[in-house]
Amino acid sequence: MSSERVPVELSKGVNGLEKIILRETRGSSAEVYFYGGHVTSWKNEHGEELLFVSSKALFKPPKAIRGGIPICFPQFSNHGPLEPHGFARNKLWSIDTDPPAFPTNSSSKAYIDLILKPSEEDMKIWPHSYEFRLRVALGPGGDLMLTSRIRNTNTDGKPFTFTFAYHTYFSVSDISEVRVEGLETLDYLDNLLNKQRFTEQGDAITFEAEVDKIYLSTPTKIAILDHEKKRTLVLRKDGLPDAGEVYFLQLFY
Predict the structure, then answer these.
(1) Nearest 5°: phi and psi at 176?
(2) Which GO terms describe its biological process (predicted)?
């Protein structure tokens, strides 16, 4: 009997919500809920969970799932007239049966293509037609890769603007043992001080008190160092040049 791991599996998750489980041959895995197009788990080859999901997460629509990787669209945070972080994280996504070519490692079989289109109710809130395509993939080394493509499908060709983010929650040890490198000397907006703009002065970001900052024009590579777990997570991006967010809000837990 073959012991080969099934790379993509449809399963039932919390409260019966459907999810996709991705498995890479060396042992890493990820879980993606159709509700919100939401990644809720990413484990390395040792089975260690790399994402944080709150114990208060309800997994009950229309509430957004607290933790993991929420998709913020068509608005990030409260930077606009819509509800904070938009509505994509509160919608039921579908499998994309005709996805475009994605620049994902072709040797990986552990991926899923999802798509979100606006409903009539969505159009009343935000009157623009679009197709949001999302690919979630595990690379051969267990890297988690999210690729998004958003297409304007307005029949009149009228353009629209939006903001977008992967609002990732990483699992770390004691927050005092964590530092973030790659944001040095950047300007940021401090959400705890009414979005006042400052320039980062430290050599690395550390956490000694409540923090909620949006860094502007962030680099393509950022590292999160967890000294207690002796683990480093490296974030790489392409095509999202405007802002990154680093925060530690004790009330969330």
Answers:
(1) -70, -15
(2) carbohydrate metabolic process
